[in-house]
Amino acid sequence: MPQHSEPGDVPAFQDLYPDDFSWCFGCGRLNPHGYHIRSFWDGDETVCRFTPEPYHIAIPGFVYGGLIASLIDCHGTGTAAAASARAEGRPINGDPPYRFVTASLHVDYLRPTPLGPPLVVRGRAREIGARKVIVEATLSVEGQVCARGEVVAVRMPDTFLKPHPER
Amino acid sequence: MPQHSEPGDVPAFQDLYPDDFSWCFGCGRLNPHGYHIRSFWDGDETVCRFTPEPYHIAIPGFVYGGLIASLIDCHGTGTAAAASARAEGRPINGDPPYRFVTASLHVDYLRPTPLGPPLVVRGRAREIGARKVIVEATLSVEGQVCARGEVVAVRMPDTFLKPHPER
Lengths: 167, 167
Known about the structure:
The structure is a homodimer.
Chain A: E1 40-42, E2 45-50, E3 57-59, E4 62-63, H1 65-87, E5 100-109, E6 119-128, E7 132-141, E8 144-155
Antiparallel strand pairs in A: 1-2, 2-6, 3-4, 5-8, 6-7, 7-8
């Protein structure tokens, strides 16, 4: 049965990342300066809602494309972790933990994204491999799709496992 | 003769954008919260140097991919403006002013990007059309290419011309 999850109902995917891998500026819950992107299941799709700050603009009145890329990126790696875990019938925070990094990111900016309402990013895992997951995403405002993206996510390589500089 | 420009020597491309189009979080000189990315000619290439903050991380010790995408994006649109102007033998800040927006962005993350040294983004306009410019870019740290990108930039459409919300 599809799982339907909302903020406050269940933890976000990112809440289940191990502490050592929770420092991402985009989605790390432990990064004090970051966006704290949070992603959830919504049936077979994943969803992330984010309201930009007034200064997250490209042109006055429209959202900065770099933020849109960041949301699709982090929601994509989160979706990869969640979809891999679900496909294997195990939790994201099992052992070993699932954490993906981005091998490639593609974003098509279909129309200017208006600043103000929440941005809604929806993701879907198109391919789930042992080490690679391909996620398709849309970013919408009030039901209108403003950007489409694709993230090729790969299981985190060991070369990333360095101590945190603040410790 | 190829022009070689360094910070302090000549204005950055972004210094020549009209005030109304200088609010971008990535590259707008008037955005008080933004990255203030600055791009220059270096022969037939363009170059942008940016030193991330300690919190711009994906994983401890490595740069956040969303920042990398942002740098390639804004350096790409800047390169599009500069290359279009150069191809026509006119300044970026001529009349009408040249300002491009991103139609699509692609980034391949080739290896983890170490945090610390300046990130060096180099761009080159592969195609220069009347309304569309395709820019290829690399992002390197201490001479090693960590990411490659492509930006399809288009001349800013009139629909972007809305008043700034703070005015």
